[in-house]
Design a protein that fits this description.
5 strands, 356 residues, five-stranded mixed β-sheet, elongated, 13 helices
Length: 356
């Protein structure tokens, strides 16, 4: 009795079902791992005051919180405000027998401000006084939670990595690279329009926001165009891992690294989404403080894209030379194989676009 043989069509479908299933697993692990259980991990906070009493109070808070908080003392309120605006601390507590005050900068992280308020509200209650919360860097009224920049990141990211499939591999690499730079400029323009005239997230520095978006988008597009040479239809899955699963979750757009586990918190230090979100925050709310580091992060990712496209160009030229040598010996057969290869590539491009 013959064993049943799987038809080519069914085998084709089952093979291509692997991509969405891997996306499902990856998105579940990334988003649920990063966002489901946000808890403070060495969240930096300050206690304002001098002398032994303040030191004892700060140590008491630290002992009660354990690894959740890193507590330091600062001499005065002005120093605490400066640390908040440079994003070196998430909150600063000003002890008082009658009007204890908590200083926060919710533009840096609304979730972080909420977390420190939950920490110090019981502390103030224990002292027998209601807690006064002062926001030294609130977001604009059009973006009350400060999370609009995270959704701007999503829009610019999707416009960038989805365009990789459209550019494909049918054109010479030089043309594809130029298209990538042009498309990134267009994507950045859309992002600037969304951030400015449409949703009013950016009330100033709109040109600089466009520049940050262009650096971010160009890096993604050049990396994708270069990787496509080597990965073909697996490019989309790779791009989603790099610029969705690991990128959105580590960007700090919803939870800053001190509210995440060590893995996503460590990615925040050098991933391009974090560079974009934190850079635009610096532009809009914190007087460009720390923006140099964020710009260099985006430039580094752009440089990676240039390196990848350069390697892809060399690979394609080498492959074209080998193909030409084979065609010179078996011209008719090679021509038929080339046609079949082009048809397969076209099919892969269509499948990749559907996957996006």
């Amino acid at each position: 009795m013959k064993s049943p043989v799987m038809s080519p069509a069914l085998r084709h479908v089952l093979t291509h079902l692997l991509t969405p299933l891997l996306m499902c697993i990856g998105m579940g692990l990334a988003y649920m791992g990063a966002f489901v259980t946000p808890e403070p991990h060495h969240m930096p906070v300050a206690v304002v005051g001098t002398g032994p009493r303040t030191a004892v109070f700060a140590q008491t808070v630290k002992d009660a919180a354990g690894d959740k908080l890193d507590v330091r003392t600062v001499p005065d309120r002005a120093t605490a405000v400066s640390l908040l605006k440079s994003r070196h601390v998430t909150g600063a507590y000003v002890p008082s027998a009658h009007t204890p005050e908590l200083l926060v900068a919710s533009a840096a992280s609304d979730m972080g401000a909420t977390a420190v308020e939950k920490v110090f509200t019981p502390v103030a209650a224990h002292e027998g006084a209601p807690l006064k919360v002062t926001d030294v860097a609130p977001p604009v009224h059009d973006d009350p939670t400060g999370q609009g920049l995270f959704f701007l990141l999503i829009a610019v990211s999707i416009g960038s990595y989805a365009s990789v499939a459209a550019i494909g591999a049918a054109l010479p690499m030089r043309v594809r690279a130029l298209l990538a730079l042009g498309v990134s400029a267009a994507v950045a323009g859309i992002g600037a329009l969304l951030a400015g005239p449409v949703f009013h997230l950016a009330h100033h520095a709109l040109g600089a926001v466009w520049g940050m978006a262009w650096l971010y988008s160009a890096g993604i597009l050049l990396i994708g165009v270069g990787l496509h040479t080597f990965l073909k239809r697996w490019t989309t899955l790779t791009m989603m891992v790099l610029f969705v699963m690991l990128n959105f979750t580590s960007s700090g757009g919803l939870f800053r690294p001190e509210l995440q586990n060590g893995f996503f918190g460590s990615l925040h230090a050098f991933w391009n989404g974090a560079g974009f979100v934190e850079g635009v925050r610096s532009l809009l709310y914190f007087g460009d403080d720390g923006i140099g580091r964020d710009v260099w992060t985006l430039v580094a990712w752009l440089a990676v894209g240039i390196v990848v496209t350069t390697l892809a160009t060399a690979w394609e030229r080498s492959r074209a030379a080998r193909t030409a040598a084979v065609e010179s010996r078996t011209a008719p057969t090679a021509s038929e194989n080339a046609d079949q290869s082009a048809a397969r590539e076209a099919e892969e491009e269509a499948e990749e676009t559907v996957a996006v």
